[in-house]
Write a structure and sequence with these properties.
Blueprint: E1 10-11, E2 16-19, H1 25-33, H2 36-39, H3 53-69, E3 73-78, E4 85-92, E5 99-106, H4 115-128, E6 135-140, H5 145-153, E7 157-167, E8 173-182
Parallel strand pairs: 5-6
Antiparallel strand pairs: 1-2, 2-3, 3-4, 4-5, 6-8, 7-8
């Protein structure tokens, strides 16, 4: 196995999850630009899209630097041959010690096939083993039924709903559902 943590991909039957490379920028730009309307209601970063290719290249450089430094782990979700970006995900250490939050999105034309569930299953396992987290959380808008289905299918437990804790990308106050696995987040039958 390579000593470069950014070159340790996660493979599933239908996907490859790995750290982005700057050369992935055209594929990522296509995935984002083809999904503007699909992602804008849920993802605050979509308000700045579409971005010029040079901005996406710079973003991918930052993602890679943070991944290598062990500060934040952003993964592209690729088709197995790496010929297209199907979405993005990540393990983010923003919710406290020994805990990681998983965020995710899929390109509009590949939703409804179980790909998010497949990707997040692999990332949950990696978070609890390879990345050493004791707790993994998924947070989502309660109105995003597709996103909410992922933690449910994977046995995450709904631990709370934060009322009026954040804003939609359009600036409207919204709630956040918090789902967890691991310490204090084990499924009820564990």
């Amino acid at each position: 196995m390579t000593d470069d943590p950014s070159e340790r991909p996660l493979r599933t039957p239908r996907l490859l999850l790995r750290c982005y490379r700057i050369s992935d920028a055209p594929l990522l730009k296509h995935a984002i630009d083809s999904s503007l309307d699909h992602l804008r209601p849920w993802m605050p970063w979509m308000l700045n899209e579409p971005s010029p290719l040079s901005d996406i290249e710079a973003r991918l450089g930052t993602f890679r630097e943070q991944f290598m430094a062990g500060r934040d782990w952003v993964f592209g979700i690729f088709a197995p041959g790496e010929e297209e970006v199907l979405g993005g995900t990540g393990l983010h250490p923003r919710i406290g010690p020994d805990a990681l939050e998983i965020g995710y999105w899929l390109r509009a034309d590949v939703t409804g096939r179980g790909l998010a569930t497949e990707a997040i299953s692999a990332l949950t396992s990696a978070g609890l083993t390879t990345f050493g987290a004791k707790r993994i959380e998924i947070r989502c808008d309660p109105r995003n039924l597709r996103s909410m289905g992922v933690p449910r299918r994977l046995g995450y437990r709904h631990v709370q709903t934060l009322i009026g804790d954040t804003f939609t990308p359009a600036g409207v106050v919204r709630d956040t559902m918090v789902w967890a696995q691991g310490e204090r987040g084990l499924p009820p039958d564990s």
